[in-house]
Amino acid sequence: MVELKNVNVHYKDGAKNGVDALHDINLRINDGEFVFIVGDSGAGKSTMLKLLTREIVPTNGRVFVNGYNLSKMRSRKIPYFRRSLGMIFQDFRLIPDLTVYENVAFVLRVTDKSNKYIRQRVPYVLNLVKLADKAKAKPTQLSGGEQQRVAIARAFATDPGLIIADEPTGNIDPKLSYEIVELLKDINKCGTTILMVTHEHDLVQYFGGRIINLSKGSIAFDDYIGGEDEGE
To answer: What Cα–Cα distance (Å) separates residue 17 from each residue in 13, 14, 20, 25, 206?
Structure first.
């Protein structure tokens, strides 16, 4: 569960009044939801993600993610909190010298999973993202779409309660963007909450669902819309 209560984020930039990056945000995302976050550049999307990953704390208000009160969290607890998240980035962030299998296994090893668990879990998630036949390949041998699927497998490998996808289709062929969202939808059906930030309005209109539109640091729209794929 994600909840923001009366959240404000004010950045001091040397000016007299500074910048209000987020203003009076009240938001609740229940477990198991799939939510698109959209908005123009400077609308507050990046600031919201930094709050949810505990890179920053709000100037005022409270932030709760996966049962953690991030507003009062001590620094030593941040790494443990982040283990409850899966992160997907626009630029993939794979380790180039490791194989596909090793990239996914890496996140399990750093969270102290047993070798037996890793041997079972990695093939499962690679099969889920349809990359079982690429397990021994290096990232440089993959297309952009395949690299992003590896990144998705890595994010899902630890079975997190929440996956945050930050512009996950930004560096791949537009035709493959739909496949990436379909894959995230499949993971969502497993019970994982998905929060996807995107600027691609065509994707949002096609898939529909819950849409949160940020504008000038405030929530301008938060509702459910029907998607074009519902009639297919």
So the answer is: 8, 8, 9, 19, 40
> 9 by DSSP, 3-state: which?
strand
**Nearest residue to 36 via CA among 145, 189, 185, 171:** 185
pLDDT digits (tens, 9 = 90+) for 39-51: 998 999 999 999 9
Per DSSP, helices labelled H in 53-99 are 78-82
Name the DSSP class of 15.
Answer: S
DSSP H helices, 11-67, are 45-52
Q: From CA 58, how far away is CA 26, in angstroms rounded?
A: 12
Q: Which long-range contacts does 132-136 make (Cβ < 8 Å, 24+ apart)?
A: 134/100, 135/99, 135/100, 135/101, 136/99, 136/100, 136/101
Question: pTM value?
Answer: 0.93
